[in-house]
Amino acid sequence: MLCSILPTRRGGFHCGCATNALVAAFTSALGATLAPLVYYHYKALGESMTAIALTSSGGRVAAIVREHWRAAVVVAAMLALFAATSIGIAWRDPTADEILARAANSPIERLHKAAEATSATALRQVAPTDALAINAGIPLSNLANPAARPFLLRASSDADRVRSLDCLTAAIYYEAATEPTEGQRAVAQVVLNRVRHPAYPASVCGVVFEGARRYTGCQFSFSCDGSLRRAPMASHWQRARQVAEAALAGYVHSSVGWATHYHANYVVPYWASTLVKSATIGNHIFYRWRGGWGRPPAFLNRHTGNEPAIAWRGGFGQPIMADRLTGAVGGARDAAAAEAAMGAAPIGSVDSFQRAVLRRYEPLRGETANQMITERARADTTLSASQRWALTGEDDDAEEPQQRPLGRWQAEQPERQQHQTQTQTQAPPPAVSGSSQDSVAGAN
């Protein structure tokens, strides 16, 4: 019996028969059987087909078929083979479709989707102080939190071992460089717990940099927020490397248990309430899956022995947070300047045929554009005080500007300029001598 092999919930396989597979097997066997007959009788077959094509009498056709009955049988079998193959291709067994649909909606597939949803970038927009309160309101689980089994790296080659160590060191450094050693060990334990869990890749580098080439959806925030563009500090990197070496050699941080998730206490992920809060170490809160996926029997994956060669140093092209903020501010500033320039630009002319005429104008001077932006900001009543201060540098409670708006210095008051000129032209005071000079030097 020909069957389709599909995975089951318990990790085994299901054997489901498909009619189209049986049809395909039958047609293949029939074709293999008729091939020698076709070859043997090809001459007779050709003669009979030619004779039939040149004959218009029905009786004559019947006589030819009786004379070359072997060839007629071959032709009929070939037509049956063609029809059976067409039916097998066009018609699918509903049972097979149902089995495939169940496989697509299997528990392991649902687990993979849930793992993708619990990314490091799925955060609620709350203030850090509010996040501290919300996280404190989620109680720690009082269920048993057994320690994980020791993880002993068995790499296929020295290169794979080096990659495992580098990737785990990177995760510890960029996630917990300033955390105490206990906090760094907890991060390393989460990475190794994921290597063993069926929801994640079975390699250290695969776990650490899962989804790293996206702007959102990465599993560890440092891999997609531009942090990798910053070169690590040698002392902190060496400390993280020591923690990684111990973890890959079998050290177990028991307080974490089988946790597979964590986040800083000043952010609130959307998925925090869907998992089991198991520990709080340093500035990080640790979680494990609910139900059977969070219990020790679920962690059955083994390290593949091979590590993907991921060129992670320098990042994957994402800008760092400072660049994102600068780009957003600069983009808004440039857009405002462009809008002001467009508003001050002369209206285009048309000729007698109502066709646009391209004329060359001098670009708008920067001082004029800045003045127009400032005037519009002053007149816009919808702006908040902070927005108006950012655009104009003016504070309603201050007598004079407290900053340079949009990166440009405002015209200084004549009195201030005169005071600065007098300060610069004044001669330095004479040097003191004796004990007074020693006291000044000692104070410095």
Textual characterization of the structure:
- The longest helix has 24 residues, at 321-344.
- The radius of gyration is 38 Å and the shape is extended.
- The protein has a 3-stranded antiparallel sheet, covered by helices on one side. A two-stranded antiparallel ribbon has the order 1-2. Strands 6-7 form a two-stranded antiparallel ribbon.
- The chain is mainly α.
- A hairpin with a 2-residue loop joins strand 4 and strand 5 (284-288).
- 50% of the residues lie in helices and 7% in strands.
- The N and C termini lie far apart (95 Å).
- The chain has 2 domains: 3-104, no CATH class; 108-322, no CATH class.
Short structural description:
This protein is mainly α and 444 residues long. The protein contains 16 helices and seven strands.
